[in-house]
Amino acid sequence: MDRFHDSVRATPLGSPGLSPETLLSSINLASPHKSHRFTSALNQAVLTVLQKEYFMFLSEMSPSVTSPKQQRWNLEWEKDGITMHTLPVSGSQLAIVRGHGVIRGYSINEIFSVIRNSTCRKKWDARYESGTPLAVLNSDDVFSHTVQKGSFPVSQRDFVVALTVRRPTRRELVYVTTSVKADTGDVPGVVVPADGESGRVRAQLDFAGWLLKETRYGVEVSYLVQADPKGSIPSSIVKMVQNNTPLAISSVSTFLEQEGPIPFVVQVPDMPSLNPSTQTLTFTSESWNSTTNTYDLSMDAISPSPAVVSTNRERGVYIPLAIPQHRFYQSGCNVKVQLSSRGGNKVNGLVVKSGLLVGHGVPGDLEVERRDGGLLKGVISSATTAVLLIWIEGWETEGFKFGVRIHLEKGSWEGKVFVNDEVAGPILDI
After folding, report:
1. pTM for the full predicted model
2. Hey, which residues does 10 pair with through a beta bridge?
3. pLDDT tens track for 340-377
4. How far does the chain reach from its first CA to its final CA, in angstroms?
5. How far apart are alpha carbons 417 and 419 in whole angstroms?
6. Where are the beta strands (DSSP E) in 180-289?
């Protein structure tokens, strides 16, 4: 994150009066959403991850220079393109662990589709037992409960966490998880599992941060973790867990090579119509079933005011969906879009429309332009054969609320995407 390095040099992190939000805003990494209960904790975790990565940057650029507070990363091992460094923590026997490597052949968004999905993680993270979203806070932030497997004589560990993704540019992504304090009732309608439930030990995750950056060599990936498992754990097991942490990068790469990315919602930071986080959309659930090859996405939407938009295209609510080749496009796919009422509004007058930005049937020169010339540059690679844009129109008043559910499954006609039983044609005028 070169701009972060510049910001730190110009404005030291320890300067009084500078909030995490102020520093993150200066490098385009502040959340674009309204604040919620966990915004401050997430901002602090994001800033801490970037700070530790900056110390690594200092060590690599000038090994003779001592980083702030005498912190220095130590190289533990290097194997098959993955390196492991540790950073001692004052007053703790548990060091911060950093893995680093390069994943080639996939875009940041394709890689991230596998990192963030709970079903995929069960395959690339051998210690991961489960993850249950407790509340979707916005299109980028989630309040969740996760469980790590135990092995004799160590009990399962669980975490109550908040997660956030920040996209400063099309070629950079930051994904951070941190433990948060919350009890049942703190978040309306959410029941928080009790500490010690099912014999588990409630552990502390200071941060787990993924930093992804597109380069000419592939996507550079850094994975930094600081955690306290709590309770009594043999030092040999702690050492094994720490040594295995950086291997998550190669495990994600292997998953992609064997199974490819999964469907994901495209988010292009500088294009509002292709960035749901800038729209009035709240993602309520997302699931991927690797057995049945089905993908489900649900969200609540609020229509923009017709009076404040300048073109017909801005009147819609847009969901750009990336469809990977490996599981779907080789045999085609079917997409079902269902609308439901919210707040007493009837959805009879709403219209679902769709079209392909990239895919079979889209003119070749146009596809190349969108993929390589600007519109989707840095967002997808050849692993994603189609990008389907779904949009809903038809309201007359501002604040019209409705629900959207999208279901994607395999089809039987190669290279064709059917949306509500109609073939999705190319979009030529976006």
Report:
1. 0.91
2. none
3. 988 777 888 889 999 999 988 888 889 888 888 888 98
4. 31
5. 7
6. 201-202, 204-215, 218-228, 264-265, 281-289
